[in-house]
Fold NEBU protein.
Amino acid sequence: YTEAWDADKKSIHVMPDTPDILLAKANSANISNKLYVQAWEEAKKKGYDMRADAIPIKTAKASRDIASDYKYKETHEKEKGHYIGCPSAKEDPKLAWAARAMALQNDRLYKKAYNDSKTHVHIPVDALSVQAAKDCQTLVSDIDYRQYLHQWTCLPDQNDVIHARQAYDLQSDNVYKSDLEWLRGIGWLTEGSVDVVKAKKAQELLNDRLYRTRPEQLKFTSITDSPDVVLAKTNAMQLSDV
């Protein structure tokens, strides 16, 4: 009974252009790793042609040379020792440059031309600048500024001479202090001086014993007929048992 059904189940045929079949094929192609790398595998089989003068190769080489520490120091290493054995220091460019820099910085060489030309200046003796310099030197000269007066010869009893002597005596420091000469060598005690008296007064003001008088030192006599004393006596008699 079921033999025909079982045989019919094995002969089922689905059309290949149905939407479900097409969707399944598309999903299989999307998730297939083989189809994903198929183009890359075919490109690898074809090989490649990269010339040595290609731009990417040159860029890679230049980047490698720049990044390489050996290439960075190659020029410096090649220049080492090239300046050894020069016939003279003038032929060495670095030494010549250092000598030039030292000469520019040397103050003696910088002023050599000026010092050599200082003595070759010729100025007329009657030039205005020379005359002005001489007049200025005369004004600032201490020798010309101080002119000591000569000794006048006059009578000692003239009024101007007497007045001048009195003025000199008043201005003289020796005469000004002559009234204190008799005090030299005289002993002097500080007792009674202004500073000592001031110190004693300050000590008395700060003395607590003199500032505060103790109660037991005060003479006190109580009044017997004062109201408070009479009241106290009356209260004592009223409270007395006797």
Notes: The chain is about 60% helix and 0% strand. The chain has a mean pLDDT of 80. The longest helix spans residues 19-31.
